[in-house]
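May I ask you to review the protein record following this short note?
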Amino acid sequence: MVAPAARRAGALIEWDDVRGFGWIEESDGSRRVFVHVTAYPRDAPRPMVGDELTFVLGTGADGRRQAREVEVVRSERAVQQEAEASESQAARRRGKVSVLPFILVPLFVVLFLLVIARWNVPLWAIVLYPAMSVATFFLYLLDKRAALAGTWRVRETTLLVAGLLGGWPGGAIAQQVLRHKNRKWEFQAFFWCLSVLNVAIFILLVWYRDPISTFLSGS
């Protein structure tokens, strides 16, 4: 009984798709072996540089070493397709970037600057929005990192309250830049309702600032 030929392992390092041949480098890097497309099974995937193979070492008509009975152990094309599919799934999990926050936030900034130019806005109100926006952005960043690491998360209530207190512009940008909380519709509904409430309160406080100041002073 004839013992089966020993199989060798290697990777396809060169491939001419038009001419149907290439070169395999053995796993130990000791030599390169010629391979022709006819050495592949009929149902094998299309050869691609990077494929990991096993083969039987034979000799071609010209006397040089040539791979026979090639089997694909790991297809580079399949690996790329899996990576693309994984990236696509990850993108779907993260959700699509919405352009709406990148429109609403600049509009609010313009409104904010017009209010400052038109009325005598107190310094604390001027500092409040930038400071809270930066703080809220970092809260989202911390929560995103905690979600990826599987550690303690920032409460959604904390994120919503931070938005209500003036940090909603930073929160809106963070949701899109970090792809965080932008797919949870319940959270989005609460977030934008509180953002509208914050803007309404801001306008009311500025509009009725003098009557409120008079009332509080008891005059």
Notes: The radius of gyration is 32 Å. The chain has two domains: 7-79, 95-217. The CA atoms of residues 82 and 88 lie 10 Å apart.
